[in-house]
Amino acid sequence: MMERSLQGLIAYAQQQPWVTMVGTEGSANNDQTGADVWQDLDVTYFTADVAAFDFEDWCQAFGQPVMYQHTEQTNLFEATSNAWRIFLVQFAGFDRVDLKIAPIADLQTYLWADRLNTINWSREGEVAGRITDDHRHWVGIPTQTAVAAALNELYWCAGNVVKALSRGQLLAANEMNNQNVRPELLRLLAWSVAATQTGQFNPGAGYRYLGAHLPVVIQQQLRTSYQQHTLAASRQSLLSELMTMQWVQTQLVTTLGIQIPAYVTPRRQQLKQWLKLDV
């Protein structure tokens, strides 16, 4: 069985005449992230004929997976992109390979789409590697309009959370919170961090890098907000989020001069009355 490593995946590609180039993407090419046993191996085989790839033959080389996902993806990057074949493969233990079979016609689009994408091997000879970075994942500096929209969504949907709680609808309250309120809070928190780094902040997928950049007290408030197993806990969850929002608003005003809409103060007072908690 071939080694489930970049070297092993390249070695397999070298044995397949239909593979023209091998590229890699993702966190393995990002110096800002540390490697661990959970890190996926993101690899793309470029070819003139995506149908030439035989998944069963590939599994014979690398071992049978515990499970996998397979999609035929068109327009992966933009409207002019061609059809890709994508295999997300989980082996026994921790090994996971996210394998893409891509048309060689999409090579330049692939390289342009993300600076974490790079070519590691070419059948034509030695490849001049490029310096990779995550700047396409930076959240940037938010505009006044963007912040206002996030605040509006958060404070409006927070009212729906309270409504569901008051009706004893725990599941509805939590889903409204987790699908509408919390995403805006996390977005605003990421912007508050980016504001201190000239916009050059990548919070990571699922905001995995965000917590380390926040004050300890804010991290604790966020952790508290995930405790939603009872109506009382869900009320405290929303309270913790509102407390965190007060901090975020102050940060955005201080660092970026953002103007907080006039309705925010009376809306917070209204939510306080509804929750019967000191927010």
How would you describe the overall organization of this protein?
The longest helix has 26 residues, at 231-256. With 279 residues, the protein is α+β, with helices and mostly antiparallel strands. A hairpin with a 5-residue loop joins strand 4 and strand 5 (96-103). The protein has a six-stranded mixed β-sheet, with helices on one face. It is elongated, with a radius of gyration of 23 Å. The chain contains eight helices and six strands. The termini are far apart.
Radius of gyration, whole Å: 23 Å
Strand-residue proportion: 5-15%
Order of helices and strands: HEEHEEEHEHHHHH
How far from one another are the termini? 59 Å
- What share of residues is helical? 40-55%
Shape: elongated
Assembly state: single chain
Which terms would index this structure?
279 residues; single chain; alpha+beta
Outline:
This protein is α+β, with helices and mostly antiparallel strands and 279 residues long.
Secondary structure elements and pairings:
Layout: H1 6-14, E1 19-25, E2 41-47, H2 55-62, E3 67-73, E4 84-90, E5 96-103, H3 107-113, E6 118-122, H4 144-166, H5 170-194, H6 216-225, H7 231-256, H8 264-275
Parallel strand pairs: 2-5
Antiparallel strand pairs: 1-2, 1-6, 3-4, 4-5
Helix pairs in contact: 4-5, 4-7, 4-8, 5-7, 6-7
